[in-house]
Design a protein that fits this description.
By secondary structure, the chain is an alpha+beta fold. The chain is about 35% helix and about 25% strand. The chain is built from 3 helices and 3 strands; from the N terminus they run αββααβ. The protein has helices spanning about 5-15, 45-55, 60, and strands spanning about 20-25, 30-35, 70-75. It has a 3-stranded mixed sheet with strand order 1-2-3. Strand 1 (about 20-25) and strand 2 form a beta hairpin. The longest helix is centred in the N-terminal third of the chain and has 11 residues, at about 5-15. It is globular and about 35 Å long.
Length: about 80
């Protein structure tokens, strides 16, 4: 899986994102770092913010395409 594919999935799930960056950490297409800032996260706990990201990436997480996912999220208040 490419970082661009994940970025596209996240852009569809978070069209209002103020910041969206996906990095393939190892070059192997299965270890990623996601940085995402969205007003959708305002008022949510970090766990709930990450849950929304996991939901957006449910397919590649569910089929094992993504082996490791590091997530950094924040609201945009």
């Amino acid at each position: 899986m490419s970082a661009e594919t994940l970025q596209s999935l996240l852009a569809r799930a978070f069209p209002d994102a103020a910041e969206l960056d996906v990095v393939d950490r190892t070059g192997g297409g299965d270890h990623f770092q996601v940085t995402l800032a969205s007003p959708r996260f305002n008022g949510l706990s970090l766990v709930d913010q990450h849950r929304l990201v996991y939901d957006a990436l449910a397919a590649p997480l569910g089929d094992g395409t993504i082996h490791e996912l590091r997530i950094k999220t924040k609201g945009t208040e």
